[in-house]
Amino acid sequence: MSRSKIVRFIDIGANLTDSMYSGIYNGSKKHDPDLIQVLDRSWKAGLSKIIITGGNLEESKKALEISQSEPRLYSTVGCHPTRCNEFEEHDGGADSYLQKLKDIINTGNNKVVAIGECGLDYDRIQFCSKEIQLKYFELQITLSKNFNLPLFLHCRNAAEDLYNILVKYPGLKGVVHSFDSSVEEAKKFLDLGLYIGINGCSLKTENNLQTAKSLPIDKILLETDCPWCEIRPSHAGYKYISKENLLPSVKKEKWNSTSLVKSRNEPCNIKQVLDILACVRNEDIDVLSENIYENTLQLFFSSKTDVL
Predict the structure, then answer these.
(1) Domain limits, the chain
(2) Residue 25, φ and ψ in degrees, nearest 5
(3) Known binding site for a divalent metal cation: residues?
(4) What pTM did the predictor assign?
(5) Could you read off the pLDDT of 12-71 as tens digits, one per residue?
(6) Which residues are annotated as a binding site?
């Protein structure tokens, strides 16, 4: 297979609504808002599109608003499993909450490309019980079916239950994002026709690397899950990152507009994820990148005209 001439990226999961991009960390203002500079670094790094994650009703509104400011930005609409109590706490109840999610999708036109982030998280049931998570995950699956949009799925220590729900709905499209489970669990989701999203949290351990190595090339998508999931020196995959993609960073207290902030991930670091994948899979990095790019178009943008 010949090498591609242009390396192109799409970050399928960027939490650009996070307050860190407004310079606020744990409620404390540390520097000026710098989302414009973050995006500028992203485009220079080769990103052609970024999908902004909606984690609840408020974030879904904000994600859509940000996406409408730039042709290369898109968004998701949904409620993270650890925040599903919001359905029942919402003024007007769960039906009203669901309707407002629908309203965002309807007003988003071609900007909303997925339902989510939704799914199950059994590592943090102190925030939301399993029962509530299960109930409102299935409710969000109805949004996927009604709007013919793929699912942007969250799964933490809940692969069996997630699979058992999804298998009840034949024909669903989607991606299990930030995948950090076993080869066997990956295969179950792949058998449903789902894609697997790989980011820094997917590449922490040697077992993670073996899972990434096993994935079929036509089912891999790339993401950063920024500002989270940075790849640290202690991670198994770190040694495979090329020096040119280890960009300098400064502490947030010493912020400047031209540098990354230490421990705050950005979409431009998607190149690091690709570096690791290409090395552990022993594949040409440009060819791998182009295959993943085409996978992403197929899942999220197959019905859109502005996909070049």
Answers:
(1) 9-300
(2) -125, 120
(3) 117, 154, 177, 225
(4) 0.96
(5) 999 999 999 999 999 999 999 999 999 999 999 999 999 999 999 999 999 999 999 999
(6) 117, 154, 177, 225
